[in-house]
Amino acid sequence: MLQLVKDVIRRADLIVEVLDAREPRLTRSRSMESLVERLGKPLLLVLNKGDLVPRGVLESWKRCFELEGHPTVYIAATQHMGTKLLRTSIKEAMRGRGGIVGFVGYPKTGKSSIINALKGRHSATTSPHPFSPGYTKSLQLFRIDSKLYAIDSPGLIPPDGNPLERAIRGSRPEDLEDPVKVALALIERIEEFSRGSLGKVYKVDYTSPLDLLEKIARKRGWIYRSNGEPIVDQAAVQLIRDYHEGKITYYILPKGCGHD
Known about the structure:
Layout: H1 3-11, E1 14-20, H2 30-38, E2 43-48, H3 55-67, E3 72-74, H4 83-93, E4 99-104, H5 111-119, E5 125-126, E6 141-143, E7 148-152, H6 163-170, H7 179-193, H8 197-202, H9 209-220, H10 232-244
Parallel strand pairs: 1-2, 1-4, 2-3, 4-7
Antiparallel strand pairs: 5-6, 6-7
InterPro entries: G_CP_dom, GTP-bd, GTP-bd_ortho_bundle_sf, GTPase_MTG1, P-loop_NTPase, TRAFAC_YlqF/YawG_RiboMat
Family: Belongs to the TRAFAC class YlqF/YawG GTPase family. MTG1 subfamily.
Domain CP-type G: 2-159
């Protein structure tokens, strides 16, 4: 875990871990949560991008994580859905006291979008933080309420666990060594849980993951002039980017939570 992320966790009075509501388990950082537990900091889980998942599924994940002892809220930061509830949940977790809320999470889960939604009229950054002597300037704070400040972890938490998740969230799509391999694996995972959703997004019929990439490339005009073959690498990068940007409807159902 990057040192700046550790600094955020140590500095904050409450840790908010931002998860992708489409696949919450795969976007939890167990190594980060272990550090939070060791330091005795309270943890609040936030399922972001909730507008991409049916409410019943969100409620199931909420019950699942709360059975594990973690208060959980679901929101859609870019749509300003659930922002008031999140603010209330943060205040409850802080027990009415002032302090610092540290936002952590994998890349592309929407930490900055949540902070922007919470800032509202408290849009100015604040440095140094009045409750924190010797505050490190590299950790930028934002006022989100009269007595609450937020830190957006400037470092990225390296994804642990699932190899596909590490590849998708550990690099920008255009920086992947083999974007086609990653995109094919992502397509298979999406088809496993949300069969047919990719055909609706790209408005094509396809027989295999590779066939989908080829048809996306042809539809967008990404063709090699030399031989007329589709540029599947470009289609792969675009599909991964569309996934990050929430253009693909896809979600995983909770299992093994003791209630389903």
